[in-house]
Amino acid sequence: MAHIDYYLGTISPFSYLAGDRLEKIADRHGAQITYKPVDLMQLFDRTGGIRPADRHASRMEYRAQELPRWAEHLGMPLNLKPAHWPVNMAPSSYAVIAAQQAGGGDLGGLVQGFLRAVWAEERDISDDGVIREILAAHGFDPALADKGLFVGAETYGRNLEQAVADGAFGAPFYVVRDSGQRFWGQDRLDFLDRHLATL
Questions:
Q1: Quick check: helix, strand or coil at residue 123?
Q2: Tally of structural domains, the chain
Q3: Distance between CA 41 and CA 39 in Å, rounded?
């Protein structure tokens, strides 16, 4: 069974645009996914990237064209300037980590739920009530928002170190553990699909 380490940011627009395609690909190939939320800003700092607030205007102008293009192509709603962005990624990331450890719900759906909340629903995913609602909506105990704080914080920091060690520098970033092949961006999912077919 192939194993995919999925490095994501719970406020990443390109992670949002990935939708549920990774899960469908993994299911088709019998692959397992480990979800690894990371602090994207620190990942940028560690790997030569530039935080959005510090990027050149031309890069941000291109981003403002590219995101709606992809959203239309994929048939996904997108608010280019969401009410709650940027927002603290840690609480929602801790919830994903705690849910993955607890099991029993739809983990892929949970990740997508947080991303959709930011980019399509104008919700604040750093708010405890919102986190609890999204956990419950995907079959997890809302109390994980509290129970998972300690283990979440530890794993969140470890995920960043692992991301750097694995060569990740943005999100979404997919690493096939079995082969070491890396795929950056939701627009590389077709390549990931083709690669898994060779394993």
A1: coil
A2: 1
A3: 6
The Cα 3–Cα 166 span in angstroms is 14
Mean predicted confidence (pLDDT) in 126-150? 94
b (16+ CB within 10 A) / e for 62-99? eeeeebeebbeeeeeebbeebebbebebbbbbbbbbbb
Q: Report the amino acid identity of residue 179.
A: S
Domain that holds residue 144: 3-196
130-146 average pLDDT score: 96
User: Bridge partners of 5?
Assistant: 34, 175
Measured distance CA(118)–CA(185) in Å, rounded? 18
**For position 182, which CATH number holds?**
3.40.30.10
pLDDT at 148 over 90: no
- Using CA atoms, how far residue 58 sits from 38, 50, 63, 64, 161, in Å, is 26, 13, 9, 10, 30
Instruction: Name the token pair of 71.
Output: 């959203």
Environment class of residue 185 by beta-carbon count within 10 Å: exposed (0-12), middle (13-18) or buried (19+)?
middle
Confidence of residue 150 (pLDDT cuts 50, 70, 90): confident
Beta strands 32-37 and 173-176: pairing type? unpaired
Provide the pLDDT confidence category of residue 121 given band limits of 50, 70 and 90: very high
